Task: inverse folding
């Protein structure tokens, strides 16, 4: 739910049955197939940032949130 400002590497693991991705701060990970993982490295400034899965319908189904950067 929160991270320190600066460079952050997110590890995106897909435990579901459909492909997913992860978008934050204008950067989007590669699509992740079921059972696979990838990383996304971004530089974040302090504040609140929205994140989501960009696969159509996924954000509307709840695959989104807000990350606090301190």
Result:
């Amino acid at each position: 739910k929160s991270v320190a400002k600066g460079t952050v590497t997110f590890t995106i693991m897909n435990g579901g049955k459909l492909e997913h991705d992860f978008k934050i701060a204008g950067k989007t990970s590669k699509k992740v197939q079921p059972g696979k993982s990838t990383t996304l490295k971004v530089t974040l400034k302090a504040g609140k940032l929205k994140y989501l899965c960009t696969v159509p319908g996924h954000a509307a189904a709840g695959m989104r949130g807000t990350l606090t950067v301190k």
In short: The chain is about 0% helix and 50% strand.
